[in-house]
Amino acid sequence: MNTSGREPTLLQSVFPLVAMFVILMGGRLYLDYRIEPLILCSAVIAGFMAWYLRCQWQQLEEAILNKINVAMQGMLIIFSVGCMVGAWMFCGTVPFMVYWGLELVNPNYMLLSAFLICALTSCCTGTSWGSAATIGVAMIGIAHGLGIPLAPVAGAALSGCYVGDKLSPLSDTTNLAPAVAGATTYEHIGHMFYTTIPGTILCCIVFFFASSSVTGELHTPAQVQDFMNQLTEIYKLHFLLAVPPLLLITGSILRWPILPTIILTTILSVALGCLLQGFDLRGGILSTTTGFKVSMTHYLATPTESVQTLLNRGGMMGVLENMGMLCVAMAFGGIMHGSGMLTVVLQKMLKRVRSDGGLIASTLLSCVVLCFSTGSAYMGILIPGSLFKESYLKRRLHPKNLSRALEDSATMLDGAIPWASGAVYMSGVLGVSAFEYVPWMVFNYSSVFIGLACARLGIGIVKISAEEAKERLATSQMDTVLIEETPEPVQA
Predict the structure, then answer these.
(1) Quick one: which H or E segment has residue 146?
(2) Residue pLDDT, tens place only, 107-142
């Protein structure tokens, strides 16, 4: 996109990325600074490099605004879901799910249960965000009641949430990745099993054995029962409280517009709170909240700390910090893209490709770079997908190889990079720092490594004929190119 400045070299292009990595790792992990100013410092460094390359400020500003515009829908959803979760606390939906979860879930297999239940929900709904806002929130509440550390439960639940985001035909990225690559949705889904099945098996093994290690300090049955009794003192746990999450899940399955669905669910939740719990809108919300950040512990004479922690969750104000982090991340990504530095990095990676497996590995790594630098799964799919599409056809690789690589990396890392839009959302909804739960997102980061292993070993690499490759190039309105006869899949 650099139309007026100098062409950046590879060293100049990589420098802001390396600086960002050093600043974030050092500032966050060792100095415990907030992440927003750290990303802002990284954006300043990228800005100085763009200035050195003689990029015009208007050009960079336009690129930054474009990135923020791409993220705007996600920001609106984050804001609305914060409101919805606060309303669910108000009406008793979350305590209702937690109460029955404590009755039904075996604490000795909490991590495995969280993974499997969230995986099933996300495959039915096609949304990791919706699954996290419903079943994920319930799992965190159950962990509160049982005295289980929240970070492992959040990581296990989110691992399950992203199974459906990767596989379900209802998922936006499951449709976007093949659309960009030139494959059909169902070709893409069938090809995803090469990496999804090993990742799912790995998660089941890890979470089965890890469950015992994180549940060593479980609350006693008496403590759990006391927790449940306090919930019943505050709320009337009526079966109608299951209606809001069922409405949200139904909307996801039927592909209703997400924002109106969330708003409708929020309004219904507030109405149920007034109807079932007898809470007054002035006394139940306005006097105890700032923008639906519900704090209703005054209804209980001596609430335990775990009950207070459960109830003081959710709300619009609680997600504003996360939205600020998303904006500064988009600023960094906009500067990198607008100055042309990001394009140089990707093109240099593409030039080093010598085999089919190497091309797939380069795609995976390019998506990692895009997600790390822009914080957007959509950018991680759109830019490498457009950049690498022709190279796949030249090597007579079926487009579903490209779509799988995009999904294995960009979609999965959206929830595993703390400043990416997905992780910002998940952290705000679950109330657990992304830096804490990311090590437990086994499914997400294992997808990248399994994808690299398949590329290295030549597993699941599907070829097409030279004639079909020419037809696909023509369909894509590309210039006629010579399709070289290449051997069957070569190991990287």
Answers:
(1) helix 137-146
(2) 788 899 889 988 888 887 677 877 887 788 888 888
Token pair belonging to 470: 């020419």
Contact of 378 with 334, CB cutoff 8 Å? no
Asked if 136 and 158 touch (Cβ cutoff 8 Å), the reply is yes
User: How far is 57 from 79, CA to CA, in rounded Å?
Assistant: 30
Whole-model pTM?
A: 0.69
| Per-residue pLDDT reduced to its tens digit, 204-243 | 999 998 887 776 556 656 666 777 777 787 788 888 888 9
Q: b/e per residue, 38-71, with b = 16+ CB within 10 A? A: bbbbbbebbbebbeebebeeebbeebbebbbebb
Half-sphere exposure for 427 (CA within 13 Å, toward CB): 24
Angle at 234 between CA 288 and CA 308, to 5 degrees: 60
174 HSE (CA, 13 A, CB side): 26
**Tokens found for residue 128:** 């990791």
C-alpha–C-alpha distance, residues 481 and 387, integer Å: 16
CA 179, CA 403: separation in Å to the nearest integer? 8
Q: Supply φ then ψ for residue 465, to 5 degrees.
A: -75, 160
Beta bridge partners of 397: 463
